[in-house]
């Protein structure tokens, strides 16, 4: 961490952290953000005099990275148009889930490939 002014310093918060082996934990500390990236999770005393464009008192809060939902329903292209117009619960319980349970890997692969942009 440098002594240059930070964009954001959040102190007094519980910080969600992970290591290079993707183990997750919580630390009661401070987070320093520069250029949209968490540069450091450190003791609040270490950033007490650090200049920052914005400071947030995070007591009672959790600071964590933004979550990005990367899941897709690409393989579901194989079921496109199946039983349209049904109420959602009926569509899932009586059509989609029973059909899904009988699909084979080849069908899932076709669905993924068919939904990819060309």
User: What's the CATH H-level superfamily name of the largest domain?
Assistant: Urease, subunit C, domain 1
Structural class determined from secondary elements: alpha/beta
* Number of alpha- plus pi-helical segments: 2
Helix content: 10-25%
Number of strands: 5
Write the element-wise H/E pattern from the N-terminal end onward: EEEEEHH
InterPro entries: Metal-dep_hydrolase_composite (IPR011059), MTA/SAH_deaminase (IPR050287)
Protein name: Amidohydrolase-related domain-containing protein
Keywords: Hydrolase
Task: List its traits.
MTA/SAH_deaminase, five-stranded mixed beta sheet, 118 residues, alpha/beta
SSE layout:
Layout: E1 6-18, E2 24-34, E3 37-42, E4 52-57, E5 62-63, H1 88-100, H2 105-115
Parallel strand pairs: 1-4, 1-5
Antiparallel strand pairs: 1-2, 2-3
Protein name: Amidohydrolase-related domain-containing protein
Organism: Streptomyces longisporus
Keywords: Hydrolase
Detailed description of the structure:
Strand 1 (6-18) and strand 2 form a beta hairpin. This protein has helices at residues 88-100, 105-115; strands spanning 6-18, 24-34, 37-42, 52-57, 62-63. Helices cover 20% and strands 32% of the residues. The chain is elongated. The two termini are 44 Å apart. It folds into two domains: 6-63, Urease, subunit C, domain 1 (Roll); 74-115, no CATH class. It is α/β, with parallel strands linked by helices and 118 residues long. Strands 1, 2, 3, 4 and 5 form a five-stranded mixed beta sheet that branches. The model has no long low-confidence stretch (mean pLDDT 84). 10% of the residues are buried. Keywords: Hydrolase. This is Amidohydrolase-related domain-containing protein.
């Amino acid at each position: 961490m440098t002594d240059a002014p930070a964009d954001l310093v959040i102190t007094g918060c519980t910080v969600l952290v992970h290591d290079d082996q993707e183990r997750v934990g919580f630390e009661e500390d401070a987070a320093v953000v520069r250029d949209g990236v968490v540069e450091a999770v450190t003791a609040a005393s270490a950033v007490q005099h650090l200049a920052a464009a914005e400071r947030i008192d995070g007591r009672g809060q959790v600071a964590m990275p933004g979550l990005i939902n990367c899941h897709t329903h690409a393989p579901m292209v194989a079921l496109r148009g199946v039983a349209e117009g049904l109420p959602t619960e009926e569509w899932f319980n009586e059509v989609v889930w029973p059909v899904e349970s009988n699909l084979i890997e080849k069908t899932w692969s076709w669905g993924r490939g068919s939904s990819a942009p060309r």
